[in-house]
Amino acid sequence: MDTDKRSDDLIIRLKNDGLTKTKFFRAILSGYLERDHLIVSFVDKVKDTQSIQSSSKASVVRRLEEKGEENKRKFGLEDDEIASIFDILEKVHPEL
Hints:
Layout: H1 4-17, H2 21-33, H3 37-49, H4 55-75, H5 79-92
């Protein structure tokens, strides 16, 4: 944490919400990796307000993510099905 006060504030807020730091950070990490739209929106806002990523780079990333989602819908693929495809490929071609 950046200061003792903010660390204490976090612990108090988490306690009020019935969370531990571990559960909180795991939930945030899962949401980020699974592209939860609320967490992604928050991260985009942080990147924008703190000038972390150029607008052109952000546009490219956004278009790529949209294209990926479009392909998932187009081919009717869910995350577990995509994982299964990679498992099958690994069995058929273990050298990959």
